[in-house]
Amino acid sequence: RSRVSLARCRGMASSSSPSAAAGASAAARVGVVQMTSEAASSGVKFLCFPEVFSFIGSKDGESIKIAEPLDGPIMQRYCSLAKESSMWLSLGGFQEKGPDDSHQYNTHVLIDDSGEIRSSYRKIHLFDVDVPGNMVYKESRFTTAGDTVVAVDSPFGRLGLTVCYDLRFPELYQCLRFKHQAQVLLVPSAFTKVTGEAHWEILLRARAIETQCYVIAAAQAGKHNEKRESYGDSIIIDPWGTVIARLPDRLSTGFAVADIDLSKVEAVRTKMPISELRRRTNE
Ligand SMILES: O=C(O)CNC(=O)[C@H](CS)NC(=O)CCC(=O)C(=O)O
């Protein structure tokens, strides 16, 4: 059994200026450090933050200016934080410096409790969508898609790394479960208000049920600036599809805690052996 947690804090959910030191807003940084220490005192060993945890731009392309490589100053700070608090961190949606000056990667970074980057995953499915009644998003204009599925061992089970809009592509999660043997799926997100209200929790529970994995989904929430608002309860779901922890959308700050018990993953899979009964209807 291991204690895991989702967190969100004020400052994270608001627009920050690219001129702020090291790209991350001061408010977000203070909030993240505070959240981490509060979670540590509750016995949490693994803390997950949502997509765009260190910066949300208010203008198109703004985050290109603050994009950094994974060995840059922003990530070094988070590595120190992980080490000081002896905690693993999942940081979804980091603006990683891209292949050229006009593109970044949307990268989910996993840091271990000794402060080393264990793994990173570049978002594969980019959000080029005309949201009904809202606005047209074109993430691919400034972001280059990743092309590699990433799963990694941890003390909390084998983790599958994904980001936000990936959630709508179940084949990625099937691949994480059946090809990469994932036991816990991570889905840090910044869903739009319109699509989040309609689909967020349903999609997450479906992914948990059909893969028989824990799902840990840290969500941005609230109004970030004039143009952008996110929706989502941050939730942890067990491999039977039950929500076992929730940080409601209406709270701008806080964390939610659950215990992960990998024997539950095995129990669900043994009783309902979908990996053996699977027919490759898709191939
Ligand atoms: O651009 C940034 O600042 C960070 N990236 C995001 O917030 C991304 C791309 S705009 N958002 C989503 O993927 C929302 C998905 C969604 O809402 C859905 O699938 O319904």
Automatic annotation (TrEMBL):
Key word Membrane present: no
Organism superkingdom: Eukaryota
Gene3D superfamilies xrefs: Carbon-nitrogen hydrolase (3.60.110.10)
Keyword annotations: Hydrolase, Signal
GO terms of molecular function: hydrolase activity, acting on carbon-nitrogen (but not peptide) bonds, in linear amides
CN hydrolase domain location: 9-262
Official protein name in the record: CN hydrolase domain-containing protein
Organism: Oryza meridionalis
